[in-house]
Amino acid sequence: MTPEFSRLFDARQLPAAPLRLAADETERAALAQRFGLESIERLEAKVTLEPDDGAVIAQGSVEADIVQICAVSGEPFPTRVAEPVALRFVPGPVTGLPEVEIEIDADELDEIPFEGAKFDLGEAIAQSLALAIDPYATGPNADQVREEAGLADEAASGPFAALAALKK
Predict the structure, then answer these.
(1) Structural domain boundaries in the chain
(2) Under 8 Å CB-to-CB from 44, ≥6 apart: which residues?
(3) φ, ψ for residue 152 (rounded to 5)?
(4) 112, 52 in Cβ contact below 8 A?
(5) Measuring CA to CA, how many Å separate 118 from each of 9, 84, 146, 162, 165?
(6) CA 52 to CA 86: how far, in whole Å?
(7) Structure pTM?
């Protein structure tokens, strides 16, 4: 698969200044399709790259303005994503080894292996965006649609509501 938002950097020649990466219209449209979004209006990342004993540490933030589909009403609605990014690109072959479940502390960096001398910061940013999208997000009309469909909230229909009705 060719990444929609590829930005290759050479681990041996890292830029000293902070980077600003922005996806163009074609890249945003392809990513929206990949992530099941109505559209991505803006995708930007601000990242600094630092060498770390052969690896590269990338820290910064990703921001996006997206239009996604409400999980309740099915209507598109705009939302903003703003997430910190903390990654560690690690040199080494990408192999088909069986996956092993490991526990990672919240303050540990996500490690991304790369082969050769270049790593794809753009694809890592795209994946960071994908992880930040709420798959069950609800839009502004969700409560109205629930009410019209007769789907009351748990407080109004749960066991405590039944007990409260007995008191009356």
Answers:
(1) 8-137, 141-168
(2) 20, 21, 22, 23, 62, 63, 64
(3) -80, 160
(4) no
(5) 5, 23, 49, 62, 66
(6) 13
(7) 0.80
> Nearest Cα to 19, choosing from 51, 47, 57?
47
Block means of pLDDT (10 residues each) for the chain, length 168 residues?
92 96 98 97 98 95 97 93 96 65 63 94 97 93 83 62 66
> Are residues 28 and 41 in contact, defined by beta-carbon separation less than 8 angstroms?
yes
**Which residue type sits at 97?**
L
Q: Which residues share a beta bridge with 50? A: 57
CA distance 111 to 85: 12
Among residues 48, 50, 3, 45, the alpha carbon closest in space to that of 21 is found at 45
pLDDT of residue 98: 57
Buried-exposed string 124-145: b where 16+ CB fall within 10 A, e elsewhere: bbbbbbeebbeeeebbeebeeb
Contact 56/86 with Cβ under 8 angstroms?
no
pLDDT at residue 70, as a whole number: 92
Q: Could you identify the residue written with the tokens 């994503």?
A: 81
